[in-house]
Target: SRCR domain-containing protein
Amino acid sequence: MKIKIIYKEDDIKIFLSSREKMILVVVFAVLFDIFGIEAFSNGDVRLTNSYRLEIYNNYEWGTVCDDKFDDNAATVACKQLGFSGGISLGNLVEDGSGTIMLDDLECTGSESRLYGCPSKPWKEHDCTHSEDVGVFCSNLYPVNGGWSRWAQWSTCTRSCNGGVQTRSHTCNNPSPKYRGSCCQGNTLETRTCNNTPCPVNGRWSTWQQWTSCSSSCGVGFRTRTRQCNNPTPQSEGVYCYGSPSQTTKCNTVSCPVVVGEWSPWMTWTDCSKPCNGGLKERSRNCTSQPPFNGGLYCNGTDTDVKLCNTLSCSGIETRLELAAIVSGVSVGSILVSVAFVLIYTHMCARKETPKEGTRFTFIKNLAFSNAAYKKNKDLKDATKDEGDSDPDDIYDICE
Model:
């Protein structure tokens, strides 16, 4: 790469004597030759990539107007650049920018420098950049551009979660000249870097609603919770700092004293015995209104007991048989009773004297109850004496 140093001869004379100036010029010449430093002076010319002619004056480059610029002027400019000759391209080049330096150049072709041709003074013109002149020199061939080496990758834009690195190269190896083609491709290249996930520290969510108070009076407690999910810790991130729950007192007013009240009695249990007196019981709980805050327990007992099935168990079999006969429950007992009655009737009928002309008159008199039988028997026993004994008496035989 060349370093361009711009100087003016008059400026050196201001600070240096002639001897010092000569020494400094020699030193600069040696340095320029060693380091390839290129210095510009007033009147130097150059061609752009589009063959536009530019001339240097007073620390800046500027364009030349195409008014009166012919092939003689082009030949002078090309010879100044080291070529054997050239032709004028007129304004068929890309428009320039900056200062228009010269106008109305009238060269003969014998001048050694373009600045030596007659023209208007520096920067005096009636042109625009659409009139910038171009020159094509003999043996001037297009130079295609070439890429320089890639620069080092830049620092990654992020330390995690994927950043971007860039590197660049320039089309200056060589630079395109004289309408040579530019380098193909991009001057910038990118790639991703540091793709590992970043640690995500946890943060608390908002508090949930308070729970209901644990007591309606006498100091209760309520709580609320939150979660460490806003966001949730990830990739070895730190868990939320603090507690996930809070507890506070509530309903701190004193509670009233409540006396217990019994619930309704439950149903009686079955009797513990079928006869000779058993027991059955019922119970209740002190839960209709439980005692609270020092209130008294329900007044009374929670169990009630009473006797049941108090009949004697003796002779119960006889009574049960009689009940079965009367009610018709025991069919066997009924059959036995019927058989007994028939046998009894038959035995008594043989000993009885027939009345009213038939031996069966007695049968119709059997439809009497046990009570009638007992009544008649007791009456007969009361009226007869010891000597009055009839072996055929039905009452004597059938008792």
Residues 141-199 form a domain with the TSP-1 type 1 repeat fold (CATH 2.20.100.10). The chain has seven helices and 14 strands. Residues 1-14, 32-37, 353-377, 379-399 have pLDDT under 50 and may be disordered. The helical segments are 9-15, 18-35, 71-80, 316-327, 331-351, 370-383, 394-398.
